[in-house]
Amino acid sequence: MRNILFLVISVLFIEGCSSGIKRLELEPYAKLSIPSISLNAPSNFPKDKWITYGDSLYDSGNVIQLFRHLPNMMSEEVRITVYVPETRINIDYLLDKKDSDDLERLTHLPPSEHNKKNMEERGVAYNRDYVDFIGGLKCVTDVESSSPAQGVGFKKYYTVCGYYDTNGNKKRVDIMYHYISSFNGTKFQSDTTSTITSGKDIDALFKQDMKAIFDSLVIHDMDRERMSKNGLLPNKKYEIQEW
User: Fold this and answer.
1) Residue 20: pLDDT above 70?
2) CA torsion, points 197, 201, 203, 208, in degrees to nearest 10?
3) Residue 56 in contact with residue 236, Cβ under 8 Å?
4) How many Å apart are CA 23 and CA 53, to the nearest integer?
5) Tell me: the pLDDT tens digits for 138-196?
6) Does residue 237 lie within any of the structural domains?
């Protein structure tokens, strides 16, 4: 059942991208910009291009989206949204130095019984929260993964970051990225013979792709003086985690 669900999700996404939504194939290192941020597309496997669509094609948008399908390997997607949150959405834990310093402890707390039951019902093999550093910001990431069934697996990440912009607004950055793997044990070939021979290799490739995107991410409207004065600009870069 889980196998079927993952395939349905993949098909629906691909169909959605091809049903009247404007889309653009990207060359390696292509730059995507919206008013708040910019980033570059990864450069590996250039014959299997990254695709952008929706708001990513308009300078006035607040979303950057990237998608790529690698045959006999995976479909991978990342969506980054930057916005001023409603008052009811609290991001003070990211913009208060004391709260920010406590994030490592909070993300290591064990899941509640309710969350454990929820994960079991959804077929989640594991779930973990941890601290990330993206675009110069200290962020919180949640990751969950399914157990691969018949060569198909699913892994998704959700990251939240916060900053003050140059107009004094509290800005929230939501980053959702995931991959659906479909691997039958044969080597993937594109421009060159790939060394991808296992599900672990696919996972590593996905993480490298996300690292390339996050390393290139620049925030244009951040009030860096205020963020630095408040101790909210850690001198750390994005690092690939084991999970």
Assistant:
1) no
2) -130
3) no
4) 4
5) 999 999 887 655 556 789 999 999 999 999 999 999 999 999 887 555 544 454 445 56
6) no
Q: Is 147 contained in some domain? A: yes
Per-residue confidence (pLDDT) for residue 239, from 0 to 100 = 94
Domain span including residue 191: 2-229
| Cα pseudo-dihedral 153, 157, 158, 159, rounded to 10 | -170
Give the CATH number, domain containing residue 64: 2.60.120.1690
Output the pTM of the full model.
0.82
Instruction: Examine residue 242 and state whether it is found in any structural domain, yes or no.
Output: no
d(C-alpha 47, C-alpha 241), whole Å: 28
The mean pLDDT value for 102-124 works out to: 65
Q: Where are the beta strands (DSSP E) in the chain?
A: 23-26, 31-33, 37-40, 50-53, 63-70, 74-83, 124-134, 137-146, 152-164, 170-182, 218-219
Neighbour-count burial for 95-116, b at 16+ CB within 10 Å, e otherwise? beeeebeebeeeeeeeeeeeee
- Please give the pLDDT value at position 232: 95
Q: How many domains does the chain have?
A: 1
Q: How far is CA 240 from the centre of its chain?
A: 12
First vs last C-alpha separation in the chain? 25
Cα(59)–Cα(40) distance, integer angstroms: 15
Taking 60 as the threshold, does the pLDDT of residue 222 lie above it? yes
Examine residue 107 and state whether it is found in any structural domain, yes or no.
Answer: yes
Q: Measuring CA to CA, which residue among 138, 140, 162 is closest to residue 233?
A: 138
